Amino acid sequence: MIGGWYKEWQQGRRFIIKVEPGEKIREKLIAFAKETGVKNAVVVSAVGSVLNVHYRGIKTGAKRPITPPRMHQHEAKGPFELLGLEGNLICNENGEVDSHLHIMLAKSSGEVIGGHLFEAEVFASCELLLTEMLVEGIERHASKSGGTQTIFIDEEV
Amino acid sequence: MIGGWYKEWQQGRRFIIKVEPGEKIREKLIAFAKETGVKNAVVVSAVGSVLNVHYRGIKTGAKRPITPPRMHQHEAKGPFELLGLEGNLICNENGEVDSHLHIMLAKSSGEVIGGHLFEAEVFASCELLLTEMLVEGIERHASKSGGTQTIFIDEEV
Amino acid sequence: MIGGWYKEWQQGRRFIIKVEPGEKIREKLIAFAKETGVKNAVVVSAVGSVLNVHYRGIKTGAKRPITPPRMHQHEAKGPFELLGLEGNLICNENGEVDSHLHIMLAKSSGEVIGGHLFEAEVFASCELLLTEMLVEGIERHASKSGGTQTIFIDEEV
Q: Could you tell me how far CA C14 lies from the centroid of its own chain?
């Protein structure tokens, strides 16, 4: 398994991205990747506010693989403070940029909610900092045992 | 709008900062920026514990722009585990370093609370990792439509 | 105290690490550090899902130093979406790599819980991005006043 569970990458370009009120974060990140030619990247930081957030959690006690009946989907109206957006852009087996993002949101009461992000709309502002990853031999595709899309790292020869 | 919604930046210096018990995190970050000459930076990581946290949320159902009656301010005594500090330092229109930080805190029960940070005092320790951003044509100032201070990116000519 | 509260570091190698279902995240990070010779590092991003999470919070109203009776330990079964893993690997006074990690988890309901991480097992996947820190004169050891293991930065001569 040497080389199959971790891999070194090089830093490429660094970007600051401003997503405007009414725009959708995931849609915008994919549009950004297409315009700039970024293939793989990591979200270093994200702050702002969002509304109409569609995300999911895993049902308590669920078994692997994660199938739709084992997930709980949420539609949250907000607006919310955007406390964090954690994740990456990695190409899938068709060479298309695919995002894996988890979101953290603060309610008016201060309580924090979040999960695996499907989509969120920007409320007042969204400031994203992103670093391009230069790397070969990594792609995201479906894991049969896990049930989700996840990273696969080629073994070194 | 080409060039106006994202911009490339270069990495400058990287720092590890230790904020001591009783010190205030935002105050200390601004003091740090003055002492080192850092103009723009991103918080890469922050762990530790805090108390006397002043932060805000956005009221559910609020409209833009975010005005004080549409926010909910919180004063939380703690102490809390500091789970994350997400955000950046970007100069404002007067060339002064201004911070935009969102905080995530764990209560004794394990519940997580957080929001837009005004100030927090360090309890037992605070370990911050920060990367300086070298970039021109970016500043933070008030957004009339959003109601908040946010980043503006000059359009490329 | 000049030089004692912050220090510049250089970036070393960057890694993507995939922790497999059933493996333990902290154990795996320490094994990774041994295999690659990484002495100090920062977690830039972590997404995935976990179960059997052992973590702690600080009791409300607790005084310094943080002693075991002033903490609240939690064992959470899950599985949970892993929303974030914030923290660093820094060598202790014996030159052994020691981790300081805080975790954020989403319950099925969307509520977020978290705290200072002891250990967590990967459920379906875990994608970690890590940057090696090249730095001298920093180590983690026990703080008498704080009660916890924290970073100490040598003063510049």
A: 17
